[in-house]
Amino acid sequence: MDRKLREFLCLSPAGYALTCSVAALLGWVVGEPFFQEGGDAARVVPANAFLCPAVLGLIAAALVFIDSVSRKSAVESIILGVSGFGVVFAATFFIMIPAQVVFSWFSSAAHAASGFDRGIGFISILAGRSISWCLFSAGVVTLLIVNKEAGTFMAVITGTLVSGAISGLLFDPIQLVLLGHGIELPWVSRVICFLVFGGLIGLFFGIAKGLSRDGQLLITSGELAGSVLVLDSAPCLIGPSRKCDLTVRSRGMKDFAAVVQKTGFGFRFYVLDEGSAFSVNNRKIRISALRAGDRVRIGEVDMIFSNGS
Q1: Alpha-carbon Rg of the chain, whole angstroms?
Q2: 49, 140, 153, 274 — which has fewest CB within 10 A?
Q3: Any bridge partners for residue 307, and if so which?
Q4: Strand order through the sheet with 228-231
Q5: Which DSSP category does 59 fall into?
Q6: pLDDT of 160-199, one tens digit each?
Q7: Same domain, 197 and 303
Q8: Phi, psi dihedrals of residue 262, rounded to the nearest 5°
Q9: Which residue ranges run through the membrane (predicted)?
Q10: Are 215 and 207 in contact (CB under 8 A)?
């Protein structure tokens, strides 16, 4: 996979959002042919029961795959993705039961009040669908079984529930706009909401992972060759002083010669001692955003930067 494409898909929130939207679209394409509009409820429910689990399962598979492909082989990532799909599909299938009960209760209240398309009835439908989507989206919580990380947990508690609530709120207004123009195509509302749903989950997940992701500096020369310096949210001081996180001795170098600091979703290298020899990819720098594979040279010590988990 091309380096820039890999960085976009695996490191940027936009990449996560795009991947999850595509996964949601694929789930919709698989399930929509079996979806039945209206008719006898006893016939409709079994036919429709697998659409949401399929969409959520594929979103989960996409999340697990892109989260692991930067650290594991493609085969291992695919296996993890398939396991994520299975776990989330099964969990969502059972969560759909209380979600359907909640929506049915709000729907009954809406029709008893003023009907679907006006007043308190419409508000009731909006609330019911939003809450039911919020409930079944909680199936992604089971991703923790496959991938137990702080970033995943943050994404679950923020992204999935909020994404489900927002997507559920959009369905009926879109449907009303279409009906107002004489277009009776309920599948349009579904595909739009599923695309938004997948995109928001991926966006929240990407933001959470970016904020919690660490970095690594592999030392390739000098006395510490082979050692790995783990970078986190705390500034990493580099220089001759024993107070530094990485001690590098060089003639004339100040006690605190450089610092590596997390900024947003990545890391930046700042030179504090302009009189010393510092370079990134053989270019002298004062400030440089670090990317995976960058070669950092401080005095006589060479290091390679990589993104952590």
Answers
A1: 25
A2: 274
A3: 215
A4: 228-231, 215-219, 301-307, 295-298, 278-280, 283-284
A5: H
A6: 788 888 988 898 888 888 888 888 888 888 899 999 999 9
A7: no
A8: -75, 130
A9: 47-66, 78-99, 119-146, 153-171, 187-208
A10: no
